[in-house]
Amino acid sequence: MLHDASENCVVIDREALPGVDIVGNVLELATLDQARVHEAGAVILALSNDSESVFSTAEVRDYAPAVPLHCARMTRSLSVAQSAAWIAISGNFRRQR
């Protein structure tokens, strides 16, 4: 959706899928460096579960504390409080095919 709106964005995933710009892990500094996270206008994390979201949010926050960080896919309010994200979106999200 961001690409469609002509926004400059970088998609990171562990798998080389259509639309993925960088294959890697957001917990690895080399991946964050390659994505130039320090220079980003914002970071949006959309991970598969709350545990990954909380841990990844803390890592990205530590790596680039001045960059606005948004986290989607949080399902429990405790996780939202733990995440250190500026905005956390709760809900049951399903990938559209």
Give a verbal description of the structure.
This protein has 97 residues and is an alpha/beta fold. The chain is built from 3 helices and 5 strands, in the order ββαβαβαβ. The strands form 2 sheets. Strands 3-4-5 form a 3-stranded parallel β-sheet, covered by helices on one side. It has a two-stranded parallel ribbon with strand order 1-2. Helix 3 links the parallel strand 4 and strand 5. The longest helix has 14 residues. It is globular and about 30 Å long.
Q: Which radius of gyration do the C-alpha atoms yield? A: 13 Å
Oligomer: single chain
Q: Can you write the helix and strand succession as a string?
A: EEHEHEHE
* Helical coverage, percent range: 25-40%
The CATH topology = Rossmann fold
Main β-sheet, in a few words? Answer: 3 strands, parallel
Tally of discrete structural domains: 1
Identify the CATH architecture.
Answer: 3-Layer(aba) Sandwich
Question: What value does the average pLDDT take?
Answer: 77
Based on secondary structure, the structural category is: alpha/beta
Overall shape: it is: globular
CATH H level, superfamily name: NAD(P)-binding Rossmann-like Domain
Helices, by number, come to 3
Q: How many beta-strand runs?
A: 5
| Percent of residues in β-strands | 15-25%
Low-confidence stretches: 77-81, 86-97
Rounded to the nearest angstrom, the distance between the terminal CA atoms is 14 Å
